[in-house]
């Protein structure tokens, strides 16, 4: 599989999840990683992702707050963010969508599902489509 030239930032506090995601998508996309919301925000200064895979639950914060911080940065307002989840309530999903989440994907990752979601949301962003709650 050849690289697409698209960039994915993976944000998760568990090294095993980061390793699995890199193994699944690393041959297709340019990947960088962060293990906290603070590190993710720092990475945005040097690594300009086309999409972010963001853990919904991290120590000291939650994915929705991190997403809001990312979307508040000039140039990143419409950056697609896919939340990676083990399990989450319907209410939390609805709140995340209302705040600008692009999608959700369950951990552990199934390669074909992950590729479809990443590719779809990158293409939607390229044509300027964004759901407005």
Rg (C-alpha, Å): 13 Å
Q: How many domains? A: 1
Distance between the termini: 36 Å
Question: What profile does the largest beta sheet have?
Answer: 5 strands, parallel
CATH class assignment: Alpha Beta
Written overview of the protein:
With 133 residues, the protein is an alpha/beta fold. It has a single domain (7-126), classed as Rossmann fold (3-Layer(aba) Sandwich). It contains five helices and seven strands; from the N terminus they run βαβαβββαβαβα. Strand 1 (7-11), helix 1 and strand 2 (30-34) form a beta-alpha-beta unit. It is globular and about 35 Å long. The model has no long low-confidence stretch (mean pLDDT 92).
Write the layout of secondary structure elements.
Elements: E1 7-11, H1 15-25, E2 30-34, H2 37-43, E3 51-55, E4 57-58, E5 61-62, H3 63-71, E6 81-85, H4 90-99, E7 103-106, H5 111-126
Parallel strand pairs: 1-2, 1-3, 3-6, 6-7
Antiparallel strand pairs: 4-5
Q: Would you kindly provide a brief summary of this structure?
A:
This protein has helices at residues 15-25, 37-43, 63-71, 90-99, 111-126, and strands at 7-11, 30-34, 51-55, 57-58, 61-62, 81-85, 103-106. With 133 residues, the chain is an alpha/beta fold. The strands form 2 sheets. A 5-stranded parallel sheet has the order 2-1-3-6-7.
């Amino acid at each position: 599989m050849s690289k697409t030239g698209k960039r994915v930032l993976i944000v998760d506090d568990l090294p095993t999840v980061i390793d699995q995601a890199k193994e699944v998508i690393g041959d297709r996309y340019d990947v960088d990683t962060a293990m906290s919301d603070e590190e993710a925000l720092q990475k945005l200064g040097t690594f300009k992702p086309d999409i972010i895979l963001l853990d919904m639950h991290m120590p000291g914060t939650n994915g929705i707050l991190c997403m809001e911080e990312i979307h508040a940065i000039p140039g990143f307002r419409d950056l697609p963010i896919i939340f990676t989840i083990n399990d989450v309530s319907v209410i939390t999903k609805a709140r995340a969508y209302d705040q600008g989440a692009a999608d959700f994907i369950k951990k552990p990752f199934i390669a074909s599902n992950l590729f479809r979601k990443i590719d779809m949301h990158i293409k939607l962003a390229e044509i300027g489509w964004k759901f407005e709650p």
